[in-house]
Automatic annotation (TrEMBL):
It comes from Anaeromicrobium sediminis. Keywords: Cell cycle, Cell division, GTP-binding, Magnesium, Metal-binding, Nucleotide-binding, Septation. It comes from the Bacteria. The keyword Phosphoprotein does not apply. Necessary for normal cell division and for the maintenance of normal septation. This is Probable GTP-binding protein EngB. The gene is engB.
Length: 196
């Protein structure tokens, strides 16, 4: 994928704020806070700081829409998993996610990001079930692949597959924002998703 332009369009909390043109397909990224979502988006777009990295626990939870080549969008969904989040903030997060995932016509796929080093959490499992429940293909990106050795990789990927109960047709791609491992693989998958 040749990235000619990439820009933040809007940080939205409700559908009225989503970009209006639904002729442009969207790919969304979900995952726990600190999993490496911003870094992965920056890596895919060849930008150092387009998506904010190392978000703080108190950060406002928004859906961040990035416009690419004026052709399609990547959507950074609000992270989950901070222990110290109030019940009402969790409910707001749930409503925001459900509204977007269930109602966005031009949403083509939702990638679940998990850290390759760690066993997926109960919330990761829920998120994965949710993604499938809304009718999307199971696609998982294992982040920070540079943090484990090549020899350990298959073992970690197998744990992720097993814990998330991934099926034969589901897709699991290891990536590293640090050394750009997996970048071409993710782009060829996105191009394939746009073709069908
Ligand atoms: P987000 O909260 O999911 O957006 O996560 P960030 O992108 O802010 O990343 C969280 C932390 O993990 C930051 O300190 C990043 O530098 C680090 N990080 C993200 N991706 C990678 C990666 O591929 N390799 C390594 N070594 N560190 C990463």
């Amino acid at each position: 994928m040749k990235i000619r332009s990439a820009e933040i369009l809007i940080s939205a909390v409700k559908p009225a704020q989503y970009p209006e043109d639904i002729n442009q397909p969207e790919i969304a990224m979900a995952g726990r806070s600190n999993v490496g979502k911003s870094s992965t988006i920056n890596m895919l777009l060849n930008r150092r700081k387009l998506a904010r990295t190392s978000s703080s626990p108190g950060k406002t939870q928004t859906l961040n829409f990035y416009g690419i080549n004026d052709e399609f969008r990547l959507v950074d969904l609000p992270g989950y998993g901070y222990a110290k989040v109030s019940k009402s903030a969790k409910a707001t997060w749930g409503n925001m996610m459900e509204t977007y995932l269930s109602g966005r016509e031009n949403l083509v796929a939702v990638f679940l990001l998990v850290d390759i080093r760690h066993k997926p959490t109960a919330q990761d499992k829920q998120m994965y079930e949710w993604i499938k429940h809304f009718g999307f293909q199971g696609i998982v990106i294992a982040t920070k692949s540079d943090k484990i050795s090549r020899g350990q990789r298959q073992k970690h990927l197998s744990i992720i597959k097993k814990e998330l109960e991934m099926e034969a047709d589901d897709i699991l791609i290891p990536v590293s924002a640090q050394n750009r491992d997996g970048k071409e693989h993710v782009w060829s998958l996105i191009e394939e998703l746009f073709r069908v």
